[in-house]
Specification:
Gfo/Idh/MocA_Oxidoreductase, 9-stranded mixed sheet, single chain, NAD(P)-bd_dom_sf, Rossmann fold, Gfo/Idh/MocA-like_OxRdtase_N
């Protein structure tokens, strides 16, 4: 039994479109993390998923919660199905790692974070862009202060999602299931990465729209100005109406250098004339018609960080609390777009 104690036990709930990189990551982490079972309501699709990735199926969600070898639950359901699942996991004393966003509304997200805090369980939120080598290299440089003070930021998420085959899926592009459009469903990754490097936002001035390229309830184009707490300013454009879709890019302008993250590469342009690059160019980033076209290694690094955090009794890199920062920024952008004025975050 010694082997069982050494490995981190994980139960998985939900096995839809977003589960593929998780399954690949978990297979790559087999020596450290044991998947004790996967559960989703549709038995046929569950069996197919488990066969495809050689993972064990669970009889029910309750069975996972009752299994003493399960240390944590990985929640991969749509955001509208989260609150009860997390509450049940907390009651069973299981730690929780969940796909972004935390929930559809910031209020529901805050309730989930509070439930985990109260139960004393660790809550991690999947924002795999932080785990690219280039992102980690920039995070270290920002933390060390060697780049100087942040003055300005530009974020562009120029993605494409087709109506046919993507938005035509039941529930997609609706407030009831997704809670919002391009910001909470797609650009949330880049916004989280930006905030992890810039620090929190103070106020925004934005414009939001749904273009004629999509028949959806939610926004597919946002342009906004951001004022950060530390005095820096920023601008962002996020869309799923940019055919055929391009890689997102984040540029941060510091006193001593400008740093650009795009396609998994960090480029540092120092004001003294030096140039540095870190990372390998990713062939795809999920910016085009296939939302799952990206490497699974980032998920692998994040799942490993979460398991290590739980075992070491520390907080993971991406927590429920850090996720609330990005939820509040998204709320402010949407409200600013609706009201046509500057909104405090």
């Amino acid at each position: 039994m010694a082997h069982e104690h050494r490995n981190f036990g994980l139960g998985v709930v939900g096995a839809g479109m977003g589960a593929k990189p998780h399954a690949l990551a978990l297979n790559a982490l087999k020596d450290r993390i044991s998947v004790r079972g996967v559960y989703r309501r549709n038995r046929e699709q569950l069996d197919q998923f488990c066969r495809e990735y050689d993972l064990p199926a669970a009889a029910s969600y309750e069975a996972l919660l009752e299994d003493p070898s399960v240390d944590a639950i990985l929640v991969l359901t749509t955001p509208n199905a989260r609150e009860e699942l997390v509450a049940a996991a907390c009651k069973a004393g299981k730690h929780v790692l969940m796909e972004k966003p935390v929930e559809r509304s910031t209020e529901a997200a805050e309730r989930i974070v509070a439930t985990c805090d109260k139960a004393g369980v660790t809550l991690g939120v999947i924002f795999q862009h932080r785990f690219r080598a280039a992102s980690q290299a920039l995070a270290q440089k920002v933390a060390s202060g060697e780049l100087g003070t942040l003055q300005a930021a530009q974020l562009v998420v120029p993605w494409w999602r087709p109506q046919q085959g993507y938005y035509d899926q039941p529930g997609r592009g609706t407030f009831a299931q997704d809670g919002g459009g391009v910001l909470i469903t797609q650009a949330i990754h880049s916004l989280d990465l930006m905030l992890s490097l810039t620090g929190p936002a103070k106020a925004v001035t934005a414009m939001t729209a749904t273009t004629g390229l999509h028949r959806i309830e939610t926004e597919d184009f946002v342009a906004g100005g951001v004022e950060f707490v530390n005095g820096a300013v920023g601008g962002l454009i996020a869309t799923t109406a940019n055919f055929p879709g391009g890689p997102e890019s984040l540029t941060l302008n510091f006193d001593k250098a400008s740093a650009t993250l795009t396609r998994g590469v960090l480029t540092l342009n120092w004001l003294d004339g030096r140039t540095e690059t870190v990372g390998e160019e990713a062939s795809t980033s999920g910016g085009g018609a296939d939302p799952m076209a990206f490497p699974f290694q980032w998920h692998q690094a994040q799942i490993a960080d979460f398991a290590e955090a739980v075992q070491a009794g520390r907080q993971p890199v991406s927590t429920g609390h850090t996720a609330l920062n990005v939820h509040r920024l998204i709320d402010a952008l949407i409200r600013s777009g609706k009201e046509g004025k500057r909104v405090e975050v």
